[in-house]
Amino acid sequence: MSTNSKSSAYRTALGRARGLGSAKSGVGRFIGERVTSVALIFLVIWGVWSALTLARGGYDGAVQWIGSPVNAVLLLLLAIVGFYHMQVGMTVIVEDYIGKPTTKALLLMANAFACWGGMALTIVCVLKVALIGGGS
Amino acid sequence: MALASPGARERPLSPHLLIWRWHVTMAMSIFTRVTGGALYAGIFLLAGWALALVSGKETYDLYMGLLGSFLGKLVLFGFTVAVFLHLAGGLRHLIWDLGKGYAKGEASASAWAAMAFAVVASVAVWVIAAMTGAL
């Protein structure tokens, strides 16, 4: 086995790939998906629990709730980490199923727009109510 | 088994989705991905909530009224199941990333456990919601 590595003529495709290492991109995303998933375990459980609180409180309760820095920060983290995780996850799905380069590129772009747009919208809305308070 | 030429011999075909016997690890794998897609739509309920809150009391009450309607509750219950199923599916992947849980029996058991957890946790959350007056 090890003698093969001495002569490149006998190396398999897998052996060559191993020798070259990674494709230099995608590893960050792979790790990012996992790190965000660990964070989301806690954030999502907190989010479900918070939803029950918010469902009882009405508008005034929600404004008061979001005025607490702990709630505002956790909600922002849930949105930021959640939207990022979502973009990476949908990227994997698109890359798995869509072969046509143009369609794939367009879908990945739409995915980025949706995730970053949704994230920015949520951040601004949460921050506005958290810092300035309710009442339009 | 006569081979006309090495290039023309029949290649083995991968099993087609429709003739593939369902097994629990396959089902859980599909559920994890499908619920991921469902949560993609679901998180915009959160974005919509934030937008409704910033728009003032009238819009907020309207939004919460929609979520509180029968159809809204149905969607939210599905959202709850999707959250817990995807959470459990993700946990299985994290355990696999540690190099554990690959044995056939273990993988099947964790798939059943993940689905059971999703159902039990979803029902528990909604029972708690009903008992605390959140519905």
Task: Write a short abstract of this structure.
The complex is a heterodimer of chains A (136) and B (135). By secondary structure, chain A is an all-alpha fold.
Description:
- The complex is a heterodimer of chains A (136) and B (135).
- Chain A is an all-alpha fold.
- Chain A is built from four helices and no strands.
- In chain A, helix 2 (27-67) packs antiparallel against helix 3 (69-97), helix 2 (27-67) packs parallel to helix 4 (101-132) and helix 3 (69-97) runs antiparallel to helix 4.
- Chain B has one domain (24-131): Fumarate reductase/succinate dehydrogenase, transmembrane subunit (3 helical TM bundles of succinate and fumarate reductases).
- Chain B is 74% helix and 0% strand.
- Chains A and B meet through helix 2, helix 3 and helix 4 of A and helix 1, helix 2, helix 3 and helix 4 of B.
- Unreliable spans of chain A: 1-5
Strand content of chain A: under 5%
Structural class of chain B: mainly alpha
CATH homologous superfamily descriptor of chain A: Fumarate reductase/succinate dehydrogenase, transmembrane subunit
Shape of chain A: elongated
C-alpha termini separation of chain B: 67 Å
Query: What is the share of helical residues of chain B?
Result: over 70%
Mean pLDDT of chain A: 89
Gyration radius of chain A (Cα, Å) is 22 Å
For the sheet with most strands of chain A, the description reads:
none
- What is the fourth-level CATH superfamily of chain B? Fumarate reductase/succinate dehydrogenase, transmembrane subunit
What kind of assembly state do the chains in view correspond to?
heterodimer
* Number of structurally distinct domains of chain B: 1
Topology pattern of chain B, helix = H, strand = E: HHHH
- Report the count of strand segments of chain A: 0
